[in-house]
Design goal:
Elements lengths: L1 H19 L1 H7 L4 H14 L3 H12 L2 H9 L3 H12 L4 H4 L1 H23 L2 H33 L1
């Protein structure tokens, strides 16, 4: 359970690192501040349907495939909360997910700033990508364990 909570911190850390510098990244490619704001606003509205879409994907494909796909459309946390609730039936870890998101975002802003200082804005993509791969490994491992544990109960 705590491994899934750690994965949630990592995914939000990558997200927070990139999110913090989105306006600067937009300016580098010639977007105005207003254009960046419009894009971010549209993205926020699109994610309103995230929980419904996450449930539909999870029902059809299981946990591993949707976590991979959802990370690209910012639904990973919804699926990870589901994994947390499976890993910890008491619900304590799922309840802590909000704190994990906040911690990850905060650590992301800090580590993103350090990454930009050391490697430039291109380093943010590498940082987020590496964190994403680590999260995929963790969630794949957890999902496999949950499926193995559930298999004898289904038989």
């Amino acid at each position: 359970g705590f491994l899934a909570l750690g994965a949630m911190i990592l995914i939000w850390m990558g997200h927070g690192a990139v999110w913090t510098f989105l306006e600067r990244l937009g300016a580098q490619v010639g977007l105005s501040v207003a254009d960046v704001g419009k894009i971010l606003s549209l993205g926020a509205f699109v994610t309103i349907g995230g929980p419904l879409l996450a449930r539909l994907i999870d029902t059809r494909f299981g946990n591993t495939t949707p976590v991979f796909a959802a990370s690209f459309i910012l639904l990973a946390s919804v699926l990870m909360i589901g994994i947390l609730s499976i890993a910890d039936p008491s619900g304590r870890l799922a309840a802590a997910s909000s704190a994990a998101m906040t911690a990850g975002g905060s650590l992301g802003a800090l580590s993103g700033g350090l990454t930009v200082d050391l490697f430039g804005y291109g380093g943010l993509g590498w940082m987020a990508g590496i964190l994403f791969v680590i999260v995929l490994i963790i969630i794949s491992s957890i999902s496999s364990s949950v499926r193995r544990a559930a298999a004898p109960a289904a038989a």
